[in-house]
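This is your field. Have a critical look at both lines of this record:
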Amino acid sequence: MTNAPGWQGSLKLIYASREQTTHVAHTQAQAPLKVQRSLYPEGQSVCHSIILHTAGGIVGGDRLDLDIQLQPQTNALITTASAGKIYRTNGQEARQRTRVEVSAGACLEWFPQETIVFDQALYRQAMHVELAAGATWLGWEITRFGRSARGEQFLQGDWRSHTEIWQEGCPLWIDRQWLPGSEASFYGAHGLAGCPIVGSFAFVGQAVDTAVVEKARLLWTGEAGEIGVTRLQSGLLCRYRGHSTAAVRRWFIEVWQLIRLLFLGRSGCVPRVWGVS
C-alpha cells in the first residue's frame, strides 16, 4: 500500500443576478475539479453548470472541497459531466466536503450523476446547506455499490454520506447514511437487501401537502426496486433501493419536473449531458 498524498482539489462558485440573468460571478478551481462554461438551455434566468473531475475518479487520500454561493434571486442547476467513481482504497480514506449558501429568493438544483463505489473503497462525503428565508434546494444522490456489470459487490470498505440543510438556525433535514462493506450489509434486509443501487431525492424550503406526496408515489412505474415518499418538515423526500440506475433516474426526473412545475413555476429542462430524452 502507498501513503502518497492524494489530490487536494477545490472549487468555489458564486452565482449573481444581473438584469434577470443568473451568471457565475466568481470561479476559483484547483485540480482535479473544474467547471465548464455556463449553459442556458431554458433561458437566462437559470444557469446550468457542469462540474468536471479531470482525474477520472477519487482515490484514497483525496480531499475535495466545494463552496457554492447563490446570491439573492438567482437560479442554478449543477450537475456532473459523467458518473463519479470511488476507487478501492490504497489504505487511506477519500473525502469530499460541500458547503452551500442559498440567499433569499434563490434556488439551487444539485443533481450529480451516479456515483459508483468500488469494492474496498473508503469514502466519506458531507454536504452542509444554509438556506435564507424564501430560498429552496433540490438535490439527489444516486449510488451504485460495486461494479455490478462485472459481478462486483461492496463486501469490503466503508461508505458514509452526511447531508444537513438548515434555514435561519433551524434544521430542516439531517440525513446520515453509513454502509460498511460486508455480506451482512449487502444482503441484509436493513442494508441493501441484495440491491446494488440506492437513491435519495429531496426538495427542501417549502411546505408540501399529502396530495403532492401521493402524486410522487404514483409516478413510480418501475419494477426493478422499491420506493418510498415522505413529507419533510419543509419539503419532500424520495428513497429508492433496487437494481436499475435508469429506473431510479427516470423516477427522480419525473418527481423533479412535478416539483418544478408546482413550486417553481417552470417545466423541467433535462441537461443534455445526462443523455436522457
About this structure: DSSP finds three helices and 17 strands in the chain. Helices lie at 183-187, 210-218, 245-264. The radius of gyration is 18 Å. The mean pLDDT is 94.
